[in-house]
Specification:
This protein is mainly α. The protein has one domain: Growth Hormone, Chain: A. It has helices at residues 4-12, 14-45, 48-75, 78-94, 105-133, 139-167, 170-189, 215-227, 230-243, 250-259, 263-289, 293-313, 320-348, 351-382, 385-415. Helix 3 (48-75) packs across helix 8 (215-227) and helix 6 (139-167) runs antiparallel to helix 11 (263-289).
Length: 416
């Protein structure tokens, strides 16, 4: 795994470096809060279903807001949108401090929903802007680094978040989350490079601009574009296919706290293993599959298999470190497929509609994750953690088989 191209990009492109640092800081705060919130919900209610509802609200609000966010990202100044999304989340994140018992837990649910609205604006806008903040030759490395940012801070943020929650208290974790959004906003404000493509037929520096239309038209534009391009359709469905089985992630809280009896620290360790896998996966897959269309499709298919096999082994782990190893391996695949599909979409989509395409992509996957988490929470209330995990793995494997069948003509065509 060669690190020099990534270090060269970070040293030579201050605009990208600021975006990367903003993502790192924001993701770290998110995971500090998530670990603390899952521990709080389980402590106050003793119910995996209630804990799953926190994740459901988080992903469901994101999915509902995504179509609107796509219109905003293609119509308005992307830098300004990202800064507004960050600043607005600071006071919302502090609202977690008001959730003190079962009667006030609803405040945490409301805050999670509002934070997800901000994320629904920030994340797709960032992905849509990335090709304009780097040179075309730098885009593969930029995607690996941005993809690894989530995994890096899940690994670091979840581990430290569990430690902070267990030693200094959950309130400190919540305060750190709020501060992270302010730091991210300051970094984004300092980016001077345009977040949009530049017109080739207009004055130098003039951005491309298209009226994005309403939400319904936004969805129609993406669907029309996907219908005429099977490769794009397969890439749009990749994250969603992965999302079918991601309700199993809810079980990490159950395994960490109840099965291995390690409390918030146990939850943090398993989430950190998830993040470490998501961090390393993009770096490993890049030199193996390359950036060709055939490589992207083949790499995504292999990633699905790695995820399913690894999580199938999780319930068999007799101790927490082995469980963490299984989770780590599973998210090598998860991190790889996310990076590969994002890079493919950026390369295949014009800047004028890229915000809507990524909002549709993120909205679809978060909707799928929401439903998957609901299913996992329902099963966890009625069956053992092992039975629930294997059921979710079976759903993931079935969805992956369907995606591979759909994408196979693309893989074959690329081989010709």
């Amino acid at each position: 795994m060669r690190l020099r191209p990534y270090l060269t990009l970070l040293r030579g492109n201050p605009a990208f470096t600021r975006l990367f640092a903003a993502q790192l800081i924001s993701f770290a705060g998110d995971w500090f809060a998530t670990v603390a919130l899952l521990g709080l919900a389980l402590q106050l209610t003793g119910s995996p279903a209630v804990a799953s509802l926190l994740l459901v609200v988080q992903t469901g609000a994101f999915a509902l807001a995504s179509p609107i966010a796509g219109v905003l990202a293609d119509r308005y100044d992307r830098r300004r949108l990202m800064v507004i999304a960050d600043v607005a989340r600071v006071p919302v994140a502090l609202a977690f401090l008001l959730a003190r018992d079962a009667d006030t837990l609803w405040i945490a649910f409301a805050a999670v929903a509002l934070l997800s609205l901000g994320a629904a604006v920030f994340e797709p806008t960032s992905s849509a802007s990335l090709p304009n903040l780097v040179e075309e030759s730098e885009l593969p490395e930029a995607n690996v680094l941005i993809g690894s940012a989530w995994g890096t801070m899940l690994a670091v943020g979840a581990a430290l978040g569990g430690l902070v929650a267990a030693t200094l208290g959950r309130d400190v974790a919540f305060a750190i989350n709020a501060a992270s959004f302010g730091a991210s906003a300051l970094l984004i404000l300092g980016i001077r490079r345009s977040f949009r493509a530049v017109r080739e037929d207009g004055p130098p520096g003039e951005p491309v601009h298209r009226e994005a239309g309403g939400v319904a038209e936004s969805i129609r534009v993406v669907l029309r574009f996907a219908r005429g391009n099977r490769t794009l359709a397969a890439l749009l469905l990749a994250k969603t296919t992965f999302g079918v089985g991601t309700g199993v992630i809810l079980l990490l809280a159950v395994f960490g706290r109840d099965v291995f009896r390690a409390g918030d620290a146990g939850i943090g360790i398993l989430f950190a293993a998830r993040g470490l896998g998501a961090l390393i996966g993009p770096f490993l897959v890049r030199p193996i599959v390359g950036v060709s269309e055939r490589g992207l499709i083949g790499g995504i298919a292999a990633s699905f298999g790695i995820f399913a096999v690894s999580y199938a082994l999780l319930p068999l782990a007799p101790i927490l470190p082995l469980a963490a190893l299984a989770v780590f391996a599973g998210h090598l695949g998860g991190g790889a497929q996310w990076t590969l599909s994002s890079y493919g979409l950026q390369r295949a989509t014009p800047d004028a509609i890229r915000g809507r395409v990524f909002s549709f992509d993120y909205g679809l996957v978060t909707l799928t994750i929401t439903l998957s988490t609901l299913v996992a929470g329902f099963l966890a209330e009625r069956f053992s953690p092992a039975a629930t995990t294997w059921t979710m793995v079976a759903l993931a494997a079935t969805a992956a088989a369907g995606w591979i069948a759909f994408a196979r003509p693309v893989w074959r065509r690329a081989a010709g």
